[in-house]
Fold:
Amino acid sequence: MKYLIASDLHGSSFYVSKLEKIIEKEHPDKIILLGDLLYHGPRNHLPEEYDTMKVIDILNKYKDSIIAVRGNCDAEVDQMVLDFPIMDDYKLLEIDGLKWCLTHGHINDRVPHQDAILIQGHTHAYSLTPTFMNPGSISIPKQHPEHTFILYENRYFQLVDLEGNKLEELSL
Structure:
């Protein structure tokens, strides 16, 4: 199965539309969203083309494929407009014999990630190691200029930007 992992969309219809083009090209079986989907938060500037209603429409098209966790900028009102669950603080998955712990990253002291790859967002800075991964941010990257996500298939992880450039890769 193919997975697309993204985080920190922050209501940017501009970048979520670009992500949708990637989804249509790659046809992932599952889309993992690591929180901060609609609201930009008080510490961030408004992202390009901030339009939560358009982001809602795009994301809800993929409701049957999305696995999501709650970010620090996600609230109950966001759950009211999204057609897939977003309020779990973390999710534990086993994929191809690998244990994954998915979380946003703002409450890691309460996340049972021992013996699992910790996959989180929150910092807006990408990382790809055998024990810790962060897809960076779709809309407001920090530390790196690229707007990034992770593609996974058959124990192979690729860090990719929204222009389709592979930045890093890891095989486990």
Observations:
- Helices lie at 13-26, 52-61, 76-81.
- Residues 123 and 136 are 7 Å apart (CA to CA).
